Amino acid sequence: MSTQSFDVPGKPEGNRSSTLPLVWWFAVALVPLVASQIIRLHQHQAAGWLLWDYAGRITALAVLAMVPAARAAAFETSERRISLFELGFWIIGISLLERLSQWPRRFINAAFPATVLGQYPHPTGWLNVFDLVFGLALVAASEEIIFRRYLRNVLHPHLGSGALAVLITSILFGAFHWWAGLGNVLLATMIGSLLMLMLWRSGALWPLIVAHYLVDLIAFA
After folding, report:
1. What is the largest CA-CA distance in the chain?
2. How far is CA 16 from CA 13, 59, 166, in A?
3. pLDDT tens digits for range 90-137
4. Rounded to an integer, what distance in angstroms lies between the CA atom of residue 134 and that of residue 188?
């Protein structure tokens, strides 16, 4: 991967000492996310699993929204720099890669079964429709805001905007999927890298949220 840097409009400026608290707020936001993941592992009904998943994501976003500096880094707005045609190209490309990566993902999970601690539930009826519409939208928005926009902005003074920033943020995003097996962790890391590159091209975050949502919708529907 090239080491050429990229810039996202509206990134917070400052030295290491001024951005360090924002790193800690990222850790605080992770607490409800990881706690909900752990609780989910003990849920035997799809409704309970989804309820805790939604609660963890909403709480994490609320944590960042309550702190002015964190809110500015997480919820900044920027103008879109890519065309709708290119947006469609990114969505199709990432979706195809995600689908083609299913066999390697399953193979790795089968080779390391101890790393698979749980799986996404299979809701039915109205709950399935609600999850496909609201749940996947919440997943896409929360993960893009926290792992792409916020984390990228917070780490910029420390790592710059080149390949190292893409690598670190993508590894952390992959590690967030720890409960689903090593294959899922590696797949999420790869998809995270592509989404970070898409952010470089797009500037605005909402195209990534749309892409993330449609990729998940194709995968789950």
Report:
1. 51
2. 10, 27, 19
3. 999 999 999 999 999 999 999 999 999 999 999 999 999 999 999 999
4. 21
Q: Which two tokens stand for residue 125?
A: 């009826």
- What amino acid occupies position 129? V
Q: State how far Cα 93 lies from the chain centre.
A: 17
Cα(208)–Cα(213) distance, rounded to whole angstroms?
A: 8
Burial of residue 205, with CB atoms counted within 10 A of its CB: 0-12 exposed, 13-18 middle, 19 or more buried:
buried
- Residue-wise pLDDT for 203-212, tens only, equals 899 999 999 9
Instruction: List all residues 6 or more positions away from 204 whose beta carbon is below 8 Å from its beta carbon.
Output: 77, 78, 79, 80, 81
**Dihedral (CA of 14, 32, 198, 134) sign:** negative
Put simply, whether the predicted model's pTM sits higher than 0.85 gets the answer yes
For residue 116, the cross-strand partners are 180
Residue 108 CA to residue 67 CA, distance in Å, equals 40
